[in-house]
Amino acid sequence: MRDVGATAAATAGAAGAGWAAYNLLNSQAAEARVVIPHRTDNAPDGDGVYRPDGTSERFTRDTVYDLYLVVFGDSTAAGLGAETAEETPGVQIARRVAAETDQVVRYANKAIVGATSKGLAAQIEAMFVHHERPDVAVILVGANDVTARNSPLPSARRLGEAVHALVDGGAKVVVGTCPDFGVVTAIPQPLRAVLRRWGLALAAAQRSAVRAAGGRPVPLADLLTEEFLARPEHMLSPDRFHPSAAGYELAADILVPEVLASIGEWGPTPLPEPPKVSEAVEETRLITRVRKQFTRL
Predict the structure, then answer these.
(1) How does pLDDT run across 120-172, given as a tens digit for each residue?
(2) Residue 34 DSSP label
(3) N or C terminus: which one in the chain shows less Cβ crowding within 10 Å?
(4) Which residue is catalytic, options 117, 222, 242, 278?
(5) In angstroms, what CA-CA distances link 9 with 12, 35, 144, 193, 261?
(6) 255: phi > 0 → left, psi -120 to 50 → alpha, else beta; which?
(7) Cβ pair 205, 156 in contact under 8 A
(8) 283: which DSSP letter?
(9) pLDDT of 187-241, one tens digit each?
(10) What are phi and psi of 33, to 5 degrees?
C-alpha cells in the first residue's frame, strides 16, 4: 500500500481533478496505509507432492509424480494471509487436481510477496535455470502493478511474455487476472473507486494478453460475490487486504476447473462463463443504486 497515494494522485491528475481531490486522495492513502499494514513476512510453504488419497510429502529427487504444477506471481499467489500451507491457493489447487485426476501432483510455489508483472520473467527464468518444466502453471498477479502505478498495457504485455515463455516450455497456463479493489473496504472512498477503475482496466488488458500468448485467463472479479462483500471479516485475513483461508478457497473454486480443462480432465460439461466484472460490487456503486431508485418510480 505504500505507493497507493502516488497512484491516486496520478489518476486524479490524469482526470483533471483539482488540488482538493488530489489532497483528499493522498489523505485517504495515508489512512489506508495505517489501516492496512505493509507485510514483509512470507506465506506458509506448501511445496511438496500431493497424492489422490489425500496424503502428501516433501519432494525429493527420487519422488515419482505424474503432474508438475507451479504457481507464479505475487503475495496472493504465494498465499499471504493464510495461516497454514493447507489454506494457500496453490496447495488447495494441487490437492483438488490430484483427487480429480487420480494423479500424483508435484507442487512448487515460485511467487514472491510484493512482486509485480516486472518480476514474472525472473521467477520463470530461475525455474528454467534449474532445468524444471511444469506441466501446468498458474499465475496470479496485478494488484501490486496497480499500487506501484505500473501502466496497464505494459503490465499486461509483460504478463503475456511470461505466459508465452511458459507455453513455449510445454506448460498449460492459467492466469487469474487482477482482482477488484472494490471489496477492500479498508480503503476509503473515493480512493477505493480510483484503484478499482485502474485494476479493472489492467484486468481487461491482461485477458487479451494472456489469450494471445496461449494461456487461459480467469477474471478474478468473479471472486467478488455477495458473500465476500457481506462477510469481509470471514473472506479477508486480519490485515483486511489479503484473502483469508475462505477467500483462497473461493479462488481455488474458480481456478481448478480451468486447470483441469487445460490438461483435458474437465469432462464434457462446458466450463461456466464467469462475469468480467463482479455483479456484487456493481450493486454497491452509487450510480447503480440511483438507477434502481428511478426504475422503481
Answers:
(1) 999 999 999 999 999 999 999 999 898 888 999 999 999 999 999 999 999 99
(2) H
(3) C
(4) 242
(5) 5, 19, 16, 13, 42
(6) alpha
(7) yes
(8) T
(9) 888 888 888 888 889 999 999 999 999 999 998 876 555 666 778 888 888 888 8
(10) -65, -30
Q: Check if 208 is active-site.
A: no
Question: Which residue in the list 56, 75, 155, 278 is annotated as catalytic?
Answer: 75
Q: How long is the chain?
A: 297
27 is catalytic: no
Per-residue cell: 199: 485494476
Question: Can 242 be counted among the known catalytic residues?
Answer: yes
Catalytic residue among 3, 47, 66, 239: 239
Residue-range domains of the chain with CATH: 39-296 (3.40.50.1110)
Instruction: Kindly indicate the confidence band of residue 2, based on its pLDDT and cuts at 50, 70 and 90.
Output: very low
Q: 10 Å Cβ neighbour count for 238?
A: 11
Neighbours of 25 (CB within 10 A): 25
What is the model's pLDDT at position 34?
54
CA angle 212, 213, 217 (to 5 degrees): 75
